[in-house]
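User: Can you predict the 3D structure for this chain?
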Amino acid sequence: MYKILVIAAGIILISLFPVTEHTRVRESSDITCKDLSSLNHVYRPWRLVVHNQCITVTGVVRRVLKEPDGDYHIRLIVDKEFRNTINFGNLFELHGDLVLEPVCAHSSSHDFEKKACGDYKSNVLIPKKGERIKVTGQYVTDVMHYWREIHPVYSVSKL
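Assistant: Here is the predicted structure, written as structure tokens:
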């Protein structure tokens, strides 16, 4: 079975990956999944469809962007065994990269986004372009873009 989505503009997206039991990502037993406090600081959480509250993937960082909302957008070229974590949105908009989003990782310039962070400041390692990493976090689809993300990121470690 393939997943078909109709976007408001009338564009039809068909996932290139069949939706079967075999495409589920592995749950993580990583210790970092025990502290999920960053979930309370996701800006506009309604836009995220949660597939798995805690997964771990590996790959190489393609790009790191500092966003004005206090988060980072890290684009990850996932390792072969994690290709099932990307969908058509990732392929079409992001050249197949998985988005990683550590929340509240730097100062926000917007008051409404500052409210989401409050006094919380992420201590997640922000990797550099070209680094090979292991990342753990909540696996979601961002319905504003229809791409898959790890958002928020609970931990990043260099490999």
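The chain has two helices and seven strands. Residues 25-158 form a domain with the OB fold (Dihydrolipoamide Acetyltransferase, E2P) fold (CATH 2.40.50.140).
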